[in-house]
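OP here, attaching both records as promised.
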Amino acid sequence: MASTSTDNRPRPGESPRGSVRQLALFSVACLALFGYLATALFYTLPTNALSSRHSKGARTVLNTVTPENWAFFTRNPQNGQIGVYASGRDGAVRNLLVTPQGDPSNLFGISRTQRAQGPELGYLNAAAASRWVPCAGFLEPCIKEATARPAQQVTNSSPVPTVCGDAFLTQEKTVPWSFRNQVPYTRRVVQIAHLDVRCK
């Protein structure tokens, strides 16, 4: 008895209709996605001949739905920062932060000591909560004033201690970008705490 079934397999040299349809659908989806991202990126650029930063409409919508700016990836640079310093017998101030990460002393990022220092400073910051004293803004005078006050004893329980002995913890504010040429410093000290850090 002869078979009535038909062979739907494509003949040699013919492209299957299903794969062409899938390829077309994939191409349209990629064009739509990359077109949307390119449009969102264009509207986050500074004011130009085609779009003003103060214009409404597409710019407002795209900046709300697809924010393409540094604030999406990093913390606000205007927020306060913690600093830690030591004062030598000669009065010279030494920064105890082990950053930047790409420094040769950190093996250009291979060493993870600077990563461990964040939680350590967070603990010292919490321990110094009752010892913060307002400061004038410049580091050296602030440390000189804080030296005259007794240091609070704190135990550093970090497994990789980087701050031991007589230290000064500071809360600092970065100078806004618009004022960078009007002052001779990049950060100003807001508060300072004098600590006697005991390492295990």
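Record two, same layout:
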Amino acid sequence: MMNKKMEHLTEEVNQLLSETIPNSKLNTNLEESMRYSLEAGGKRIRPVLLLLTLEMLTDQYKKGFSSALALEMIHTYSLIHDDLPPMDNDDYRRGKLTNHKVFGEWKAILAGDALLTKAFDMIVNDDSLNDVAKVKLIKRLSFASGHLGMVGGQTLDMQSEGAETNIDLDTLEKIHNAKTGALLKFAVMAAVDIAEPENEVSNALESYSEHLGLMFQIKDDLLDIYGDEAKLGKAVGSDIENDKSTYVSLLGQQGAEDKLKHHTDKAYKCLNQLPKQYNTDNLVYIIELFNNRES
């Protein structure tokens, strides 16, 4: 359950996303396919986290909108590709038919490709940012979404599937620091790139973002065991069915719960290290949201 501030920011993000991809002169329905997944719902956690962090650091949080929209485009493209038959082969996402089930596989691939490239276009064309900030953001987003970030993590995850593959906890954390954590880390650190706070603030927020990423994934693994399919918008138990290594499979349910608490406590500690001038209430709320979410 979001608080009022998050709800307001989510509405702003949704409105801007709906205006971002008009039809082109090429007379294809590629844009329709892009919008289908981009506007399919979701909690917009990543863009909202970026905006909340920036609002804590500066009163000019609207400077983060282009990065927030770019981040959601990257996330959405990754979901389109993840759902394809060679990957997760999912028919539904957030309770709706997946992109390739509506538009076909080749167009879903191209819609994902187009969202990926559109993301960088959003940042480049933001007149509220200076060139130094744009370069920092593009560099950070390229790393977070590329072969050393999200895509690399997904690759290692795919290679680690199957009953014949046994990975240890260190490898699992390496997967999720990249696959899930990289974009969450970008959300927080993009705000740092824009606001340019002192190093002690930047370091504390970077650690906070890393613990958030692991919290998010551990909770995902737990929800696959006891989550409500109606709230999740997808079937539970798929990790077991696909012989995926998870925090639950490696540590047991109680061990995964303990690991979640460990990273939760660490995330709180990171925020407590920030100077008193910063109001961390909304970032504390994000920790609680990640810890207690049902979808």
